[in-house]
Amino acid sequence: MKAAYIQNGLVCIGEMPEPVPGKGQALVRTHSCGMCASEQHFLHSGQNVIDLSKKFGGAYAGLEMSRPFVPGHEYVGEVLDYGVGSKRTIKPGRKVTSVPIMRQSGSHSVIGFSHDFPGGFGELMLLDEDFLMEVPPDLDDDMAAMTEPLAVGLEHARRGHPTKEDVVLVVGCGAIGLGVIAGLKLMGIGPIIAADYHEARRDLALKMGADIVIDPRELSPYEPTPSLGNRRVNLVYENVGLPGMLPQIIASIAFDSRIVMGGYCMEPEQFYVFAAQNKRLTVHFAGGEEPQDMELALRSIADGKIDVRSWLGERIGLSGVATAMAQMSGPLAPVRTVVDPRLL
Questions:
Q1: Which of these CATH numbers, 3.30.310.50, 3.90.180.10, 3.40.50.1220, 3.40.50.200, describes 2-146+308-339?
Q2: What element of type H or E holds 287?
């Protein structure tokens, strides 16, 4: 099959072996796949991610940078067939997405970060049939591919146990932060304050449901807000993933507040426990989405309750993957570039 793959920190285009489904595995032809910053990490610091997984536990421990792997974990595709002995719960020809996890055959692998289970930057994938979710046939493929990134934000949103008495701050308005805002809005939580350095991302935060947007270079989002009766934020969602964010939030936030760490920081972080204890703070560390978040994300996109069209940028074929991945971190980059591996 044709695929864009990563090997030795480079994006390559070429032929990869066609995957063969085993029991409990569906063979799927990819239609659309979103491009996530986690894939870009492997171009610059892939070995660090692998080493951290080996040291602390993680699904990336089995990767070898010298061997090719096909990324892409935000996908929608068409079921072609199943392995012998499978339950075949969704008929061939139907469109599906799934949590990007393979648990069949006694393994636990992340689809798109595995040498055995290629992701959506290739023409064919193997998906765990227990995690398959059927996509409505009239839902646009690129919109359906936003299910997984939206689901991450929905998971993070509920991880903070928000209530209608909270004043919420979302720091960082990339895909995760925007998904958090959408999830909070879906739960009827507000007011929501969003902080980001980039005007375009602040505009997107408003579209997703934020009530107030702030450029933190001009105004501290932790100070009393006059338009909210001088109330202060007491629930912060961090979606940046840079060292220094947690101690900054701890130093700035009010007493008895809660913090949800959603950004993926790969570097050591230092903070004074003394400061957090004195304020009686609670810190939650959010992870990836769960099936319930995927189901809610897909349903919310399909019925129009959450509109993710503003996330979508260029639609590219395999030959555009390397350039798009190199440019995806810029302030003017779209929230998601979508790859169609059927196109060169």
A1: 3.90.180.10
A2: none
